[in-house]
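[Discussion] Sanity-checking designs against the backbone

I'm trying to build intuition for which residues belong where. Below is a structure token string of 441 positions. I'd appreciate it if someone posts a full sequence so I can compare it with mine line by line.
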């Protein structure tokens, strides 16, 4: 959050007149789709990606890979079912321009890919992308042998910049401070199998956020044939090693985005209703799976059935004291529910959210308080003391999760208007329709 944005279109957030009962099919995971695209692009043979998420962040990723020469074609999948992308790797080529938008996955995962390309790859994006941390990836790539020009505008190690790909990268050992974003580690590991010496990434610095996302990177690398040593597999703490080697062409079906399931589960919790999310995976590295525990502690109950995850609210919503460092992207939705609870909440471990799509701690504090709430920022999170809220404009600061947080509050508070609900297109373009569909409108 930098300043109060001008009002763009206002969307009257629907108010729930009673308990919500619905089944909501949530589109595919952003984090899985964008990792799968990168890995398939680096593979030695074509692969399939079924039920990919089609949203701003994933279309930017696909567009960037296409610009570097990768084939990404529309298809129906090898068994004839479902929409799919066929990814056909090729020699990565510059010159090319990559628009990262405000996608952390694109701005962090692609510079290492660009270092493998032959020719210059220029990176640019939304103004906010210039402010988001990137230097950990850029400094590491230089140590690993890449030539990068970040001198044209802005600050060193920040966008916009040009990676002068040399067709190969030496790789080897590197130390980084990834306390501002786990995506620095994921970025180096994802391309690591293609570096001449592979890569050894050692995190030095404060606590590393979003560990499930690093596990997702490791699991997906292993599934496509890479050898990865991790702290969990008997290695040193904070050290990951990827052995050089060819990646296989695979057929992967993308799981629903469990973080984007959050507002719908919250709807059941806040209204005392029941929401079913089909295809909820029994085992997953997605951080959104933690919602089963968190929203249960806040007053709901859930069951994993053949129909999917069935989540039921009890009619009461309780506050929570929780460390969200592993699952930071869930913070806006949890804060929204906490603002409607019957007791105070403390959300901890998420200082790095100040450098997400917007400063999420400042934005949540300001917007909930402008509806009559009582939220204060702490060094690493939020204190939320529920108060009776009233209607008003909920600004979103180009942050998809601010928009969905405002919609949750709107279910319980009449007269909430979301400014720029279209920003949900970053990861969930269907949000307004899914939301009104859930409410039976
Ligand atoms: O690797 C990923 O797919 C992500 C990692 C996390 O980033 P940070 O570690 O920067 O919070 C998360 O917040 C983001 O939404 C997606
Ligand atoms: C932090 C997020 O996104 P990004 O991938 O841009 O970091 C998010 O989706 O909550």
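Best answer:
Here's mine. Compare freely.
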């Amino acid at each position: 959050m930098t300043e109060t944005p001008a009002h763009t279109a206002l969307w009257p957030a629907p108010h729930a007149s009673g308990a919500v009962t619905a089944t909501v099919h949530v589109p595919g995971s952003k984090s899985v789709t964008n990792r799968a695209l990168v890995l398939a692009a680096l593979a030695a043979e074509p692969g399939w990606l079924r039920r990919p998420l089609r949203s701003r962040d994933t279309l930017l990723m696909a567009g960037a890979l296409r610009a570097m020469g990768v084939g990404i074609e529309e298809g129906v999948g090898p068994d004839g079912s479902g929409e799919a992308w066929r990814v056909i790797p090729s020699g990565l080529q510059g010159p090319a321009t990559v628009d990262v938008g405000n996608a952390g996955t694109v701005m962090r995962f692609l510079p290492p890919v660009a270092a493998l390309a032959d020719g210059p790859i220029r990176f640019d994006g939304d103004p906010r992308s210039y402010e988001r941390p990137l230097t950990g990836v850029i400094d590491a790539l230089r140590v690993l042998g890449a030539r990068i020009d970040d001198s044209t505008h802005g600050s060193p190690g920040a966008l916009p910049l040009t990676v002068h790909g040399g067709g190969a990268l030496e790789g080897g050992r590197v130390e980084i401070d990834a306390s501002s974003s786990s995506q620095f580690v994921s970025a180096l590991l994802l391309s690591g199998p293609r570096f001449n010496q592979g890569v050894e990434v050692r995190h030095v610095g404060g606590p590393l956020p979003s560990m499930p996302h690093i596990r997702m990177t490791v699991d997906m690398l292993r599934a496509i044939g890479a050898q990865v040593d991790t702290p969990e597999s008997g290695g040193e703490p904070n050290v990951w090693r990827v052995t050089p080697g060819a990646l296989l062409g695979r057929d992967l079906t993308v799981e629903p985005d469990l973080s984007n399931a959050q507002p719908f589960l919250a709807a059941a919790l806040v209204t005392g209703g029941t929401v079913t999310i089909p295809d909820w995976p029994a085992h997953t590295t997605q951080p959104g799976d933690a919602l089963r525990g968190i929203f249960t502690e806040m007053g709901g109950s859930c069951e994993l059935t053949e129909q999917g995850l069935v989540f039921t609210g009890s009619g009461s919503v309780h506050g929570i004291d929780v460390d969200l460092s592993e699952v930071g992207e869930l913070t806006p939705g949890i804060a929204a529910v906490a603002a409607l609870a019957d007791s105070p909440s403390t959300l901890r471990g998420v200082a790095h959210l100040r450098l997400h799509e917007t400063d999420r701690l400042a934005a949540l504090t300001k917007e909930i308080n402008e509806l009559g709430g009582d939220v204060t920022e702490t060094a690493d999170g939020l204190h939320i003391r529920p108060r009776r809220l009233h209607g008003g404009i909920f600004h979103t600061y180009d942050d998809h999760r601010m928009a969905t947080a405002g919609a949750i509050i709107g279910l319980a508070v009449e007269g909430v208007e979301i400014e720029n609900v279209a920003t949900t297109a970053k990861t969930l373009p269907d949000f307004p329709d899914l939301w009104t569909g859930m409410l039976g409108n």
